[in-house]
Amino acid sequence: MTKLKVATFNLDKDNDIFPDRIYNLSNVIYKNRFDILCLQEDYNSKKFSTGKFLNIELNYNYISIKTREKFRNGINSSSNLTILSKYPIKLLDKLFFNKGKEDIERAAVFSQLSFKGKEILLINTHLCHLSSNNRIEQIRAILKKINEYKNFNTIIFCGDLNALPSYSEVKLLKEYGFSDKNSEFTHESRVILDYILNKSKRDISIESKVLLKGFSDHHCLLNIINFL
User: Fold this and answer.
1) Higher per-residue confidence, 98 vs 12
2) C-alpha closest to that of 42 among 97, 119, 124
């Protein structure tokens, strides 16, 4: 049996005590030694990049795409989608929704993860917060893109979906064959908004937990995926 520790975490851009809370977070992330860390709202500017700073502690493989670029506190910055990976990872594609419209621009990153002889399709996304109908269209676009990668036996889908488990957009993913294990709150408002979903032809079991509370308005969601 082999284990893969996958985490997803919305870092809340440059809000609250920033970047001090990121400096404090780096030691905690280092101690947890996640295999994969999918980040949303990864603040990035010429002066400071949260994802790059965290990766200094890990020295992992690094993929990041810029989304939602604008002036924040007088500084031109972006709110990136980033993947930090202990194992080899390759960017396959990036999918943008409402490109250039900061309030609603969102994206999804498609990557190939090479893990102990297994090739895994890993997706990281952050969906729109304004409209369930918009999120449904974004999910449909993601599923259409997934259909282009039929050679993968395992798909891991991470991100902040801005949707409760009962919402149609989450149900759409489960109708496609995805499942998730988490039942704990992932946001300080005591709701579930963050997900690690999986779809696999392999025999797997999953342990799920929520941790790293207090560093963001979101909590970090961790899945330990056991390949049997």
Assistant:
1) 12
2) 124
pLDDT, tens digit (0-9, with 9 covering 90-100), for 88-111: 999 999 999 976 555 567 899 999
Q: Name the residue among 2, 6, 3 with its Cα closest to residue 181.
A: 6
136 φ/ψ angles, rounded to the nearest 5 degrees: -60, -45
The confidence band for 30, taking pLDDT boundaries of 50, 70 and 90, is: confident
User: Are residues 60 and 54 in contact, defined by beta-carbon separation less than 8 angstroms?
Assistant: no
Distance CA(150)–CA(153), nearest Å, equals 8
Residue 9 and residue 221: Cα distance in Å, rounded?
Answer: 7
pLDDT (tens digit per residue) in 48-64: 999 999 998 889 999 99
Q: Where are the domains of the chain?
A: 2-227
Beta sheet of 106-115, edge-to-edge order: 89-97, 106-115, 118-126, 154-160, 194-200
Percentage of the chain lying above the pLDDT 90 cut: 72
Distances (CA, A) of 224 to 94, 150, 204, 207: 26, 24, 10, 5
- Assigned CATH topology for domain 2-227: Deoxyribonuclease I; Chain A (3.60.10)
Q: What share of the chain is helix, strand, coil (3-state, %, to 5)?
A: 20, 45, 35
Angle (nearest 5°) at CA 145 between 219 and 4: 45
Longest C-alpha distance within the chain, in Å?
A: 51
Residues 147-158, mean pLDDT to the nearest whole number: 96
Token pair 């990976």 in the structure block, residue: 85
